[in-house]
Amino acid sequence: QPPELPVFPPGVHGETIVWYEACSGGDNSDMSAAKLRDDLRSGKTLYLRHRRNTVALALSATAAMGVITLYQTGILKRLPGFENKWLDAEKVNGSLDAYAFLGTPDAVLGIGSYAVTIVLASMGPSDRYRKMPWVSVALGAKSLLDAGYAGKLSVKQWTKFRTFSFWSLIAAGASMATLWFSLPEAAAAIRTLRRP
Fold first, then answer.
1. Would the pTM count as exceeding 0.90?
2. Considering only CA atoms, which of 127, 130, 140, 132 is closest in space to residue 40?
3. pLDDT on residue 185
4. Is a pLDDT exceeding 90 seen at residue 16?
5. Residues in contact with 99: Cβ distance below 8 Å, sequence separation at least 6, in sequence order
6. How far, CA to CA in Å, does 102 sit from each of 3, 39, 108?
7. Cα separation of 190 and 193, whole Å?
């Protein structure tokens, strides 16, 4: 006699049962983990390709933030940044503004932010926009916030310092590009949520 399936609240799709059981260590944990592994490593859907690109972009931004962190925490005494009349990474990333929020170098906070993006991009199976729509929506919202903030900081660099940080521009470009890959899945997830 199979056990009775739980009754989910309104708006939660029945297909999510595998996900809930996986999170709680239920009988289907191994099956869900296998599906997630196979989807992420071998899946060929458009949204999976977009998610992989999002992970790659976030990792490239994290690498740029890592270089800045080495400088801001004193591990590197000089910050390479291809200095010229348009670029001066030390002037930007060594400014007081870079240490003004939460008593923490801003590059360290950036690493944490991009780590959240990586988690959201890698979470769930290939059809998560149907089974876990809020995760797709969260990634889209996070990407919008990141792109807006990156644009704001880039403008501030020029208006306040009259120069840019090469490493910050890499991170800003990655944040902008992520929008292209995250918003289509978020839109599909919103359509799922709006279904009766």
1. no
2. 127
3. 96
4. no
5. 72, 105, 106
6. 50, 38, 11
7. 5
